[in-house]
Amino acid sequence: VKVLFGLSALALLAGSAAAAPGPILITGAWTRPMAGGQTDAGYLTITNTGKTADRLLGATSPQTVKIEMMRSSITTGDVSTMKLIEDGLALAPGETVRFEPGGYHLMLEDLKHEQKLGAAVPVTLTFAHAGKVKAAFTVAVGPPR
Ligand SMILES: [Cu+2]
User: Fold this and answer.
1) Cα separations in angstroms, 16 against 20, 23, 57
2) Which one, 23, 27, 63, 125, has least CB within 10 Å?
């Protein structure tokens, strides 16, 4: 049984090393131009194309000290508030979640460098099931079309 397990673990490793896309599909990732030292929001669309429920647990980037998941909403009196998402974001099989201005966003806190128009900011998203998924956030004035 141990030998069989070892073989299947090797097969899994070989499979993950291949370029085949995982169940998590990231599209339209962007963030605004911003000076270093500032905080900026990042937006993207995440689709769980797999058959297993998943959960976005967090994100990291060499460009920031810290990334937090937040959700903006308009409360009474047209006041916009941001709420920290501390226990992750669930993604049912087949579900798509959009991070966009006025809603879900990633807070890229304390940028280490200026974000110049047209550059790409590397972000690694961590999912409970899919593991680490890399995304490049295009620095742009609005969402990519
Ligand atoms: Cu925020």
Assistant:
1) 8, 12, 20
2) 27
